[in-house]
Request: fold
Amino acid sequence: MYRWFVARITRWAIMSGVAGRPEAAARMLADDVNFEFPGSSSFAASTHTKGELIAWLQRFSSLRPDYEVRDVVVSGPPWNTRAAVRFSDRIGDDYANDGVQFLRMRWAKVVTDEVFLDTEKVAALERRHPEFARLS
Reply:
């Protein structure tokens, strides 16, 4: 039951954040959450606070991506929960990417959030649309 609940609330929090409602996602974040988005694009980030991650999420959601959580797999006890989220991300007909987000949680608070995707596709999107790199 615990894993089912964590999967449901994780899916809800991610989709709320992507839809421009980061306050919903913020409820699941530890104050000192570590977030990693790799690559060389302006979206690349290594943040260490809830506020920094929320700011990144607000910027990402401003693109209005077509974002789909395909699967959530949860394991571990409440004090050391891990969740893998498989997703698809699209922006119009110009960009499509698939990836995995790996979360570590303690007592229902995300302490680590790592995103794994084709970062070259993100950089190529910015080369085609330099205005995305200027979003703040």
In short: Strands lie at 29-37, 45-47, 66-75, 81-91, 95-106, 109-117. Residues 10 and 72 are 8 Å apart (CA to CA). The helical segments are 2-18, 22-26, 50-61, 119-128, 130-133. Residues 2-18 form the longest helix (17 residues).
